[in-house]
């Protein structure tokens, strides 16, 4: 396929951070390029001389501010609202796959921005019209086929769309890059969704099965009112919930929770734990250094924690904090960081041993 650039979705307002990340990472990988975006748009287009090679050098799992990473094939502005399908078929013919069908699934979506949200109804209706046309042209599998790349139509305006595709295994499997989670009625707080999403996005299915087993032991630093503790107990983990504030009673009633009224920055476990999680509101550098100490001292094997970012130079602060964490830990770690859908002015970090048993 003919790839002209990368199309990455992000949280609206974080386009400069994503653009800075793509520029820094592409330069480090030897594929310098440039970004095109507008603040509040919810997406960034990044151009490089060899966009296909750049995509391979920037795996989706390693990107922090990108919810989704797509291969851009065409930018189609000024479309006739009465016929958007013909230009799409023409652009795909120019992309020219040697084997057909080229795509296993079609996703018609829009950026997650206030400006683009009114396009959701058009996206659904247009998807229903476009699928049979693509199948008739032999471009789309008759039934969804997860072995083939996904075709994405991103509606920027009613008369402007971006045509892209995603590769299985190197992109988010969810529309718009957003896993749809519903807050459980028993969840003590909405923060539970952040940890649920982190475990879904930052771990693959095999890792979740191996690393979140009933009977494991964990600590939740800054636990009150118990959202993250509650998520861990739903996986059958025994949790020491560390916070001077109260926990919801039904969390304590699970029989899997010990509540310690203590400072999460000072408390340390008597023995090594399988997991440590932390969502304390504190300066990100202080959190990064403390999280590193947990690994340096061998107090945990895996951790999930949040870093609350400043209002300016958030990509620079992200790089600094992750480097500080890695240096403070002093042991080889596999680190994945992402600004999740349920995050706000923060990123979520997963850390585990370089070789996971």
Q: Key terms for this structure?
A:
10 helices; seven-stranded mixed β-sheet; THUMP fold; 30% helix; Rossmann fold; alpha/beta; elongated; 357 residues
Short recap of the structure:
With 357 residues, this protein is α/β, with parallel strands linked by helices. The chain has helices at residues 15-28, 51-57, 85-95, 120-136, 191-201, 205-211, 227-234, 249-252, 284-296, 314-329, and strands spanning 5-9, 33-37, 43-48, 68-76, 105-109, 150-157, 160-166, 217-221, 238-242, 257-260, 273-278, 300-308, 333-338, 346-353.
Commentary on this structure:
This protein has helices at 15-28, 51-57, 85-95, 120-136, 191-201, 205-211, 227-234, 249-252, 284-296, 314-329, and strands spanning 5-9, 33-37, 43-48, 68-76, 105-109, 150-157, 160-166, 217-221, 238-242, 257-260, 273-278, 300-308, 333-338, 346-353. Helices cover 30% and strands 25% of the residues. By secondary structure, the chain is α/β, with parallel strands linked by helices. A hairpin with a 5-residue loop joins strand 2 (33-37) and strand 3 (43-48). It folds into two domains: 5-177, 2-Layer Sandwich (THUMP fold), CATH 3.30.2300; 191-353, Rossmann fold, CATH 3.40.50.
